[in-house]
Amino acid sequence: MADFGLQKHDWFVNLFDIREMWIPAYFRDVFLGGILRSTQRSESENNFFDHFLNPFLSLVEFASRFQTAIESQRYHHDQLHANSKKLFPQFLTPLPLEKNASELYTLTVFYLFQSEWKAVCFSCGIQRFTTDESGCDHVSVVDILREKTYEVTYNPVDHDSSCSCKMFQREGLLCRHVLFIIKVVFLLLRVQMMICRSYWTWLNL
């Protein structure tokens, strides 16, 4: 904006202020792993480095302070990792998927996952289910909270899944719609195993 002298252009400034709302639309089909949460992230990073750096440093001072900043970040990261290992979050369900997620993610990321998991349990349902010629399942998942329907494609052979909301591509975190299908598949497999076990038990009587 400064390069082109647009700081006082009302329309452009307003558009820039709400960039979080329209920029993601241009990257829906590109995997970005959460980089589009860059406004908060870059502001946080700028604030962090402001404690160590200023415009009046010599090159040697800059290099030394930059190294100190990086070491501080590594120490903070190690603390978060250690906390994730010794602190146990409260689970919403007894399902193994939630417990596995708590072991896989840091606490911060797990709470983001748990927010989606809560929606899986209380606000998602199946509207339509079809299977194509290749054997892939196409499921219309109703999201009651958002009052929208999303299309999930699930491959039962390799368990590959994708959703029209593109949350995984944007943020690197599985959305509630894919998690809902995973939960349904897990429960179906569990029921099938219980039926088979009961059947063989009955035969052996």
TrEMBL record:
Keywords: Membrane, Metal-binding, Transmembrane, Transmembrane helix, Zinc, Zinc-finger
Top-rank taxon, per record: Eukaryota
Domain SWIM-type, first and last residues per copy: 150-186
Transmembrane domains' residue ranges: 178-200
Pfam families: SWIM (PF04434)
InterPro entries reported in the protein's UniProt record: Znf_PMZ, Znf_SWIM
Gene Ontology molecular functions: zinc ion binding
Protein name as annotated: SWIM-type domain-containing protein
Species of origin: Cuscuta europaea
